[in-house]
Amino acid sequence: MPAGTARAGIPLVALLLAACYGVETGAGPPAGVVAESSAPEVYVALTRGASGVEVGGGGPVRVLDGEGQPIAELPAGTVARAATQGDRVGLHVAGMRLGPSLTLELWPRDSGTVRIADREYRGRVAITATTTGLLVVNRVGIEDYLAGVVNAEMGRRAPGEEAALEAQAIVSRTFALRVVGRWRTQGFDLLATISDQAYTGVASETPAGRAAVAATRGLVITYADQPIEAFFHSTCGGRTAGGAEAFVNGGLPYLQSVVDQGPTGQSWCAISPRYQWREEWTGEQLRATLRTTLPAAAGVSATRVTEVRDVVVTDRSSSGRVASIRIQLGTSGVPVTGQTIRHVLRPEGAPLLRSTTFEVQATRSANRLIRLVLEGHGNGHGVGMCQWGAVGRARAGYGAEQIVAAYFPGTTLERRW
Q1: C-beta of residue 116 within 8 angstroms of C-beta of residue 125
Q2: Which of 91, 250, 311, 312 could form a disulfide with 243 if both were Cys (CB 3.0 to 4.6 A apart)?
């Protein structure tokens, strides 16, 4: 094989092949990786469909094939690139090619971490070749996973707000436990994005977040002895939404609309920077927006969006959110309902409208809409725990269990491990 270097002058011979370091196969995890005795492991998809990904560069990492057979060890500081080779994955480093194999597993040494694309992750990482590219999955104990979720979701919190972090740990643990095995046939349980829960591994861990996870270890929210659908969102705007307002089959007894106000009548989440908001479009800007959003969200051809005559609220939910609107295009009206409204009235540069709690101000001239203003409250779908409301309650002295009980009435906390 051709000689070469990996990085920073590390010679090729520093790649210790399996025969040299004597890994025992079939004898449990490599040294330094400790499996939790009863807490489950979760499979978190970090990347899907990539043509290649950089691995290593932090601490020493062992490389095994999909059968658990050792292939090599990457010394600390060595960066390799995993890439598809037909229906398999190979590892390219310092002029060498390791594999190919259907799956490559990366195990950290000495209780360390695995670096994937400049981020460190606890547990181990499996890289699999699929028909669409590489699937990179972090297989990690649920408590270590939560340590990378709590502050990614809640941000860094100040002293006196620990109960909000603990409540988030409980809710996130419940969410993860509920979905374990959901997509395991595809190789993972969860996505590392806000589609499920934000997760960036060690980068988002903080001492306060790890303390919140440790303080609530094993605590899960249950209803009828089963983990609940533990939804959460940023800012409810003063009242949460019932589950059915945002989700099909969301009409669960514990997903009720909750008035989220303190003794003075002020919303607990009024401290949120997203508590109040305003969006505005000219007629031309709105037409351009709808030409982009209506085809994908409502199945309306862009060619129909020649003129916008009006936007009218036609129904509101029991929590006061907009449940349906009618967008008048020429002589025909297009009904839009539920969370689809947030996709259709998406502000420029934003993935979604902040919430469906808003009032409409429409200005028309010559039977055409020339200006649309939405003034609203809150951020997110509004179901379940309001994160900024949890912070407000924590500042007022509420404990984590009280916060959870407020947002999920009728539920029970159980310690599962």
Answers
A1: yes
A2: 250
In 3-state terms the chain splits into helix, strand, coil percentages (rounded to 5) of 25, 35, 40
Percentage of residues in the chain having pLDDT higher than 70: 91
Q: How many CA atoms lie within 13 A of 45 on its CB side?
A: 23
One domain, residues 283 and 365: yes
Residue 4 lies in a domain: no
* CA 235/CA 388 separation, integer angstroms: 6
**Cβ atoms of residues 180 and 40 within 8 Å:** yes
User: Parallel, antiparallel, or unpaired: how do β-strands 52-56 and 79-85 relate?
Assistant: antiparallel
pLDDT of residue 339: 96
Burial (CB < 10 A; 0-12, 13-18, 19+), residue 4, is exposed
Instruction: Please report, in angstroms and rounded to a whole number, the separation of the first and last CA atoms in the chain.
Output: 50
3-class SS of residue 170:
helix
Strand order in the sheet with 368-377: 276-282, 368-377, 358-365
Cis-peptide, bond into residue 100, ω within 30° of zero: yes
Q: Residue 190 and residue 187: Cα distance in Å, rounded?
A: 10
Do the beta carbons of residue 287 and residue 305 sit within 8 Å? yes
Q: Do 194 and 317 fall into the same domain?
A: no
Judge residue 416's burial from the number of C-beta atoms within 10 Å of its C-beta, 0-12 exposed, 13-18 middle, 19 or more buried: middle
- Within this chain, do residues 96 and 53 fall inside the same structural domain, yes or no? yes
Concatenated DSSP letters of 12-61:
GGGSEEHHHHTPPTTSSSPTT----SSSPEEEEEEEEEESEEEEESSS-E
Pair (125, 252) in one structural domain: no
| 151 domain residue, yes or no | no
Residue type, 154: M
Last residue of a domain, one of 125, 145, 165: 145
Q: Which ranges in 205-248 belong to alpha helices (H)?
A: 207-215, 243-246
138/116 Cα distance (integer angstroms): 10
Do 290 and 228 have their domain in common?
no
Which is nearest to 414 in space by CA: 144, 255, 229, 225? 225
Domain count, the chain: 3
pLDDT tens for 182-234 read: 888 899 999 999 999 999 999 999 999 999 999 999 999 999 999 999 999 99
Joined together, the tokens standing for residue 304 give: 């129909």
363-386 average pLDDT score = 97
**Greatest Cα pair distance in the chain:** 82
